[in-house]
Amino acid sequence: MNTFDVIIVGAGPAGSLLGYYLAKNKINVLIIDKQKLPRYKVCGGGLTRRALDIIPFNISEVIESYSHNLNITLYNSIVFEYTSTLPVIGMVMRDRFDYFLTKKATHQGAALRDETAFKSVTGKAGDLNIETSRGFLKAKILVGADGVFSKTAKALKLNISSKQMIGLEAEIYIPNANMLKTLMNITSFDFGVIPEGYGWIFPKKEHLSIGILSVSKKIKAMKQYFYNYLETKKLQNYAHIKSLKGWMIPYGPPKNIFYANEKGLLVGDAAGLSDPITGEGIFYAFKEADIASQIIADKLLFGKGGLSLYNGALKPLQKDLAYALKLHRLVYKIPRISHKLMKVHGNRLGKKYIDIITGKTTYCMMYKKIFSIQGIKTLFSNQRKNPSAS
């Protein structure tokens, strides 16, 4: 009962989806989590179209709402508006969504033990002794899916030295029915409300998830920026705030990082791969779970390859995020230029962003197209046509 092929530490989206894939392949897998499930998770809870398209089963029962309308503003002025017949983002509450994914894994045959914290691992590859708060377990492979400050990563000597951005998010209830109805129709990304970051409004089934995010290490008064944001959106007199909490989002790990060795590997925030502009992590978590499941299955079922192949398999994601990091520096570190670009080229840049989150293009393709010689010529040409925007 305490011996498994794979033990996954963490029942978030990455760990649960990986458990689902492995169990479907008849691999004996256990998911452990230190908290009692289901549990509240601080997160905007927006699943982009590219993330939704990866999920191998229907999740409609845990979708709060679908977003068809999206606005991007700069200093409370709209620079991009988008409406689509197909949803761009699916909204979820992370406690329900994560638990739904975990149940999908257990229905395939994965074992689950919540209120079980990972402590340490000893032994050699293929024969691991894993200490938890509820006793010892044995496994051939250990997977860390336990978040940005992963204890599993440290135990496996896979220390991912990523940077972190800080987010602050709350569930907001609006008693004013007319105001709530108006806000329910639009997903907003608002720049200029906090240094080196943005604010967002995500409509859920009966309330709004509202938050702010910043990549600056100098921000101290996050709550004040949050309340100022509510005031900017004219919500300060109507908002009933529930569970205002902060969390850290990893991004931009340096080159030559190892995400796996022959004892185990990392997925989700433990791997430190998130969008350095928006903070989106679930898409990358799902991609990692898919890739990891194939590598683990090849090793356990067919004796092919090894876990270290995972390092190479993540390089396309790393490469694309390297281009996203270039844009991140422009957007957040040189606001004088990026804000001018948003004013003049908000529509063009907004469409490119939509293409990214719907999976039609990548950051690499976007960067090369916009900052190629022809792309720069187009930018300057458009700016000459719109001198008033400068």
List the helices and strands and how they pair.
Layout lengths: L2 E7 L3 H12 L4 E4 L13 E3 H4 L12 E3 L1 E6 L2 E7 L5 E3 L2 H14 L3 E3 L4 E7 L2 E6 L2 E10 L6 H5 L7 E11 L3 H7 L3 E5 L5 E7 L4 E7 L7 H11 L7 E12 L12 E3 L15 H21 L6 H5 L1 H19 L1 H23 L5 H8 L2 H13 L5
Parallel strand pairs: 1-2, 1-11, 2-8, 5-13, 11-17
Antiparallel strand pairs: 3-7, 4-7, 5-6, 9-10, 10-11, 12-15, 12-16, 13-14, 14-15
Helix pairs in contact: 1-3, 1-7, 9-10
* Secondary structure category: alpha/beta
Question: Which topology of the largest domain does CATH recognise?
Answer: FAD/NAD(P)-binding domain
Tell me the name of the CATH class of the largest domain.
Alpha Beta
Oligomer: single chain
What percentage of residues falls in helices of 4 or more residues? 25-40%
β-strand percent reads 25-35%
Mean pLDDT: 93
Q: Give the radius of gyration.
A: 22 Å
Largest sheet: 7 strands, mixed
Question: For the record, what is the CATH homologous superfamily label of the largest domain?
Answer: FAD/NAD(P)-binding domain
Note the overall shape: globular
Tell me the number of helical segments per DSSP (H or I, 4 or more residues long).
Answer: 12
Task: List low-confidence stretches.
Answer: none
CATH architecture of the largest domain: 3-Layer(bba) Sandwich
What is the ordering of alpha helices and beta strands?
EHEEHEEEEHEEEEHEHEEEHEEHHHHHH
For the terminal residues, how far apart are their CA atoms?
67 Å
Number of domains: 3
> Total strand count, please?
17
